[in-house]
């Protein structure tokens, strides 16, 4: 699919245009300069032609923002991998020094560049756009990203500039793995290590990642989408509007994923916020893999890993059947095992068990260990089947479903897990009137 990159200095409206082109609020938009940091991908369609759109952080020089250097790298990477570049400027401020720097960069890149003057909200402001001819990038396209005026003509020009031999294709229905956890546990570092590229910005500052970044992974016989998310902090510690939206994006990433890779910091162990995130995963019936990162910082003996895993499972109970992988991202220690484990959990999550096998295995166990009688009434389970649901759900048909206690529900769940591999997958068990 052809790629269109949106570049420019901070706060000219790049993310607003990106959201308009992809038809949804995928990128966070705020008046604060420097809101967008990583490259952000989406798909747009105009007159039957599909193409990918990249939103980039604002290109800046000489500021105090610790992310500036990393954002510049991301912008250069976006320009390098794109077929067409949309260079955005703002009519009210005119040509700035940064605009001149970016224009010079684009002239030397030999890419097809469309100069877009944003925030042209009325006809009088069109006259102000004429000074941008001085950038030497051809005729400017006057648009207003807030109202959408002028974007039709811009999209016509974008489609005309796309390479002719590029064939549009939609996103495939592939598994989605979300990397989640508290801030600064190494989520973006893991994503970069797996992709073997500087896809996401990594700094020691907690909260570097703001948007949820989706990337396709296709190596070693595995094909899926990888989602890097913003760190999830306690609600009381979320003070900025930007961070609120980042947390919202992370929660939505969990909701739209198939398997969540929950990262912990080995030096801090499993904390209450990790438990809150885990419960969010379980409530949404998603597969889960626990990754204990920064394992190289821990003093170890022969039983350290086993004891650490047991302590985590104790905290996770009653749902403790979760795979745990110990990694060190800078050393690339066991990072491929994370993906292999996530794939196993994904296949377990979509596993369908024939009804005959379920009844053949479970009914003798139920007959041998029936539910305890309540008020002199005997509870009889006659039949069990797996429901046609996206996640593993089982229905037990019983004469008195209202009398079955939670303990017996867990007993049946454990028996199912003993026979079939549902490691890392929450199971739902329903008791229905036969």
What does it look like?
- One of its GO terms (molecular function) is GTP binding.
- Associates with the 50S ribosomal subunit.
- This is GTPase Der.
- It comes from Alistipes indistinctus YIT 12060.
- GTP 1 binds at residues 8-15, 55-59, 118-121.
- It is a single chain.
- The chain is of the alpha/beta class and 434 residues long.
- The protein has 3 domains: 1-159, P-loop containing nucleotide triphosphate hydrolases (Rossmann fold); 174-348, 3-Layer(aba) Sandwich (Rossmann fold); 353-431, GMP Synthetase, Chain A, domain 3 (2-Layer Sandwich).
- It contains 11 helices and 15 strands.
- The chain has helices spanning 14-22, 68-81, 97-109, 151-161, 187-195, 241-256, 272-283, 304-316, 335-349, 355-368, 406-419, and strands at residues 3-8, 40-46, 49-55, 84-90, 112-118, 141-142, 176-181, 213-219, 222-228, 259-265, 287-293, 324-326, 381-386, 393-398, 428-433.
- The strands form 3 sheets. It has a 6-stranded mixed beta sheet with strand order 2-3-1-4-5-6, sandwiched between helices. Strands 8-9-7-10-11-12 form a 6-stranded mixed beta sheet, sandwiched between helices. A 3-stranded mixed beta sheet has the order 13-14-15.
- Strand 2 and strand 3 form a beta hairpin.
- The model is unreliable at 26-38, 165-171, 199-211 and 234-246 (pLDDT under 50).
């Amino acid at each position: 699919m052809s790629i269109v990159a949106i570049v420019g200095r901070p706060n000219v409206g790049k993310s607003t245009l990106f959201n308009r082109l992809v038809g949804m609020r995928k990128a966070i938009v705020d008046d604060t300069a420097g809101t967008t940091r990583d490259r952000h991908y989406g798909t747009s369609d105009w007159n039957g032609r599909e193409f990918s759109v990249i939103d980039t952080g604002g290109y800046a020089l000489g500021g105090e923002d610790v992310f500036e250097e990393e954002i510049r790298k991301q912008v250069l990477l976006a320009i390098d991998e794109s077929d067409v570049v949309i260079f955005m400027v703002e009519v009210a401020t005119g040509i700035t020094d940064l605009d001149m720097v970016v224009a010079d960069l684009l002239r030397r890149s030999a890419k097809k560049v469309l100069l877009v003057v944003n925030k042209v909200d009325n006809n009088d402001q069109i006259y102000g756009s004429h000074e941008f001819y001085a950038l030497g990038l051809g005729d400017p396209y006057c648009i207003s990203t807030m109202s959408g005026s002028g974007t039709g003509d811009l999209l016509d020009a974008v489609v005309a500039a796309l390479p002719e031999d590029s064939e549009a294709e939609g996103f495939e229905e592939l598994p989605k793995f979300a990397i989640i956890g508290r801030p600064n546990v190494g989520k973006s570092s893991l994503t970069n290590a797996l992709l073997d590229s500087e896809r996401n910005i990594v700094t020691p500052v907690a909260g570097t990642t703001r948007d949820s970044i989706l990337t396709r992974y296709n190596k070693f016989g595995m094909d899926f989408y990888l989602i890097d998310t913003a760190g999830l902090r306690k609600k009381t510690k979320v003070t900025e509007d930007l961070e609120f939206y980042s947390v919202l994006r992370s929660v939505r990433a969990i909701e739209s994923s198939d398997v969540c890779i929950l990262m912990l910091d080995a030096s801090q162990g499993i904390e209450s916020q990790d438990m809150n995130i885990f419960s969010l995963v379980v409530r949404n019936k998603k597969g889960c893999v626990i990754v204990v990162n920064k394992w190289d910082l821990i003093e170890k003996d022969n039983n350290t890993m086993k004891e650490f895993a047991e302590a985590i499972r104790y905290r996770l109970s009653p749902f403790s059947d979760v795979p745990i992988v110990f990694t060190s991202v800078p050393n690339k220690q066991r990072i491929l095992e994370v993906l292999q484990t996530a794939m196993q959990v994904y296949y377990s999550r979509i596993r369908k068990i024939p009804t005959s096998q379920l009844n053949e295995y479970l009914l003798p166990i139920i007959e041998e260990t029936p539910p305890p009688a309540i008020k002199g009434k005997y509870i009889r389970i006659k039949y069990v089947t797996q429901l046609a649901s996206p996640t593993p759900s089982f229905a037990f048909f019983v004469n008195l479903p209202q009398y079955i206690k939670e303990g017996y529900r867990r007993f049946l769940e454990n028996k199912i897990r003993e026979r079939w591999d549902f490691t890392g997958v929450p199971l739902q068990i329903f008791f229905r009137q036969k």
